[in-house]
Design goal:
Elements lengths: L1 H10 L9 H14 L8 E4 L8 H8 L1 H4 L3 E5 L33 E5 L13 H10 L4 E4 L9 H9 L2 E4 L6 H10 L3 E7 L9 H5 L4 E2 L8 E3 L3 H10 L6 E4 L2 E6 L2 E5 L15 H7 L3 H4 L13 E2 L14 E3 L12 E6 L6 E3 L2 E3 L8 E2 L2 E2 L4 E5 L5
Parallel strand pairs: 1-2, 1-5, 5-6, 12-13
Antiparallel strand pairs: 2-3, 3-4, 6-11, 7-11, 8-10, 9-10, 13-19, 14-19, 15-16, 17-18
Amino acid sequence: MANRNLTKAKREKNDEFYTQYPDIQKEVEAYLEYDPNTFRDKVVYCNCDDPYESNFFRYFVLNFKKLGLKQLITTSYKPSPIANTQLELFAGFEATPERQKGRPKVTANKFIINKVGKIESSDELSLEDIAKQLKENKQNEWTPLEGDGDFRSEECIKLLEQSDIVVTNPPFSLFREYVKQLVDYDKKFLIIGNMNAITYKEIFPLIKDNKLWLGNKTSSQQMFLEAPKEYTEKVMASRQEGMWWRIVDGKPLIGIHTALWFTNLEHGRRHQPLELMTMADNLKFRKNKAFAEGKAYEKYDNYDAIEIPLTNAIPSDYEGAMGVPISFLDKYCPEQFEILGATESEGKGFSNGLWDETSNVSQPLIDGQRKFKRIFIKYKREQS
């Protein structure tokens, strides 16, 4: 399966999955609908983005004035082979690095945009456009980084300290460490990660405490990413075009349904309470397998909660703890529900919302049978 291949790619540290412009645009606009000033007078930092290849850089340059940005900073990890064929575009800048014989990869790059002039066409942003914007204002800066652009490096951390909001697609294999850094430095963020990160012991407590939540895109919506060539060829050879891959603007894109946005920026869908039926009505009208077999709302053997097979089947009149699929977080409204805890993807669990290595709910059991990963919730008291 494609997502199994993605896991393999992560193990091999092959994290070069590029986000498409329309996905960035659609997600960011959801926050603007909730608060048009979300990005106004803010410094946005894209710290995993080569400006020569990143649609994050392209989006924020094209929408610099619309968003009211104070500044846009982007840094790349290691030098781009594309960048090093385009150095002549930046001739005349004091910091433009010279090619060195036998060293085609010069360095990682840093772009700081303070002012964006008029761009004749917003449909495409070429390297010529980038060079033009930099040259229009001497406050704009393009310089090589001293190191390789790792987000953990001292020079990148200094740039992080100067920023307000971080927006990027970080390496999935370093997601835990990446989020920890953002939290440690108290930054707002909008980043892409794997759905499995929801139950990481480093991530779930942040979700439970409403310090991190899912973005506007739901897990049922497929995200198509530009992937490494070898990975793309394997998926195209083994899967049909459509859900698994498609050609967009002449490029093959791979569908990754486990890719989600993680954020601490507010958006409207997060505060929409679920409209739900009573337990009696669910048992009467629902026709899916669990209800047809009489297995809905069973109690766990090893935790005082009932099993909820799908989010929409949460009964409106049950006051105890409930185990729901992790996809529940797509529809989680913090004013409606309290999160108690969750099973964890590494075989350990949360007990009453606290990380506990000896927890007996590392996997919830019914009739001795293991269930899928579950999040435990109950209604807020004012909702009862």
